[in-house]
Description:
Elements: H1 7-27, H2 40-62, H3 65-70, H4 78-89, E1 94-97, E2 101-104, H5 126-136, H6 147-163, H7 168-173, E3 177-178, E4 201-203, E5 207-210, H8 230-238
Antiparallel strand pairs: 1-2, 1-5, 3-4, 4-5
Amino acid sequence: MSKIIPAETVLNTYQRIEDSLHRVLQYVPYCENHKQVWSDYLVTVILEACSLLDSLWRAQSWQSSCVQKAKKRNDLKMLDYFKYYGEYMEPKWVVFWAEEPIKKYPFKGWSKTGKYKTKDDQDYLDWWTAYNSLKHDRLQNRTEATLHKAVRAVSALFLAILRCEDCRTAILQAGWLTGERDRPECYLGEDSPSDKDAFVAAETKLFTYAVWWGNEPVPKRKEWSGPASDRFIRWFYQE
């Protein structure tokens, strides 16, 4: 089987998952009082989001010859992903378009030591713990499928897709990217040096990620000097 990740399949599956979450939010708006609301519908959202994330990271990890020499493909676990991707992913934030926009850090708290090397460094993500519980017994553990965890799981998947090099062209073709620079998809790698002034954003129905801004605060009254949705431009200035 080819090592190339089927990017269109990844994005199409993500879109179905996000649409499912969006339908829930039309009936149960996201707010502090609703965070712990659970639903059988959200069981499917969490299972599908985390399963796709696991498959995506497994495929990405397996592209490395170092991983192939050290691990069998089916031996890759969340601890491996923590070591490979934790330092990059943990500080990232997205804007979640609830009734009021909310800054979400889906990987926050993944490391309890600030390091990403051993099991002792790793802490458990609530949405991934819920996924494991649901995967092993979705009937007995269905109350783990809360709105809060579902939003975190889907936003985590969104960030993981943006990080995937094999998905960049499909992300551009799907219309997720805004920006006036040539080949804005190349900025998704966020390779150094930083280029925040490129003002490239990745946007879907529920989330926006500001490329290069995703691991630092937005200065007060900073203008987004590039194309993006009106709602994001307003949020960015007011943040």
